[in-house]
Amino acid sequence: QVQLVESGGGLVQPGGSLRLSCAASGSIFSRYAMGWYRQAPGKQRELVVGITRIGSTNYADSVKGRFTISRDNAKNPLYLQMNSLKPEGTAVYYCNANVEFPTGRYDYWGQGTQVTVSS
């Protein structure tokens, strides 16, 4: 079982910044595509940014220019730097790792970390 653990969430004012971290077991980062998703109350979980095995990224239009995904190969963590946070960014943020098979996609999820953007 692949284990993912997020951290770094909290309460921040609009316009503020937070950096989320995702720790993954083993060498999962080099073998799986990964990403950050978020789910706001009453809404479906949505992709924030994904990163492929070769490092290609895809950001949701709503966070382009404000959020940045990054990796630390030495410690095998995944980060999400969030700047210029907006109230609509309030959600539980989840780290994701996934693999694609001909029959479908298999996903691993962290427990989530709460981000609240409020004045």
Describe this structure in words.
With about 120 residues, the chain is mainly beta. Helix content is about 5%, strand content about 55%. The longest helix is centred in the N-terminal third of the chain and has 4 residues, at about 30. It is globular and about 45 Å long.
Radius of gyration: 14 Å
User: Which descriptor suits the 3D outline?
Assistant: globular
Based on helices, strands and strand pairing, what is the structural class? mainly beta
Q: How many helices?
A: 1
List unreliable stretches of 5+ residues: none
Helix fraction bin: under 10%
Topology order in helix (H) and strand (E) letters: EEEHEEEEEEEE
Question: Distance between the terminal alpha carbons, to the nearest Å?
Answer: 40 Å
Query: Strand tally, please?
Result: 11
The profile of the biggest β sheet is: 7 strands, mixed
What amount of the residues lies in strands? over 45%
Rounded mean pLDDT is 92
Structural topology:
Blueprint: E1 4-7, E2 10-12, E3 18-24, H1 28-31, E4 33-39, E5 46-51, E6 57-59, E7 67-71, E8 77-82, E9 91-101, E10 104-109, E11 113-117
Parallel strand pairs: 2-11
Antiparallel strand pairs: 1-3, 3-8, 4-5, 4-9, 5-6, 7-8, 9-10, 9-11
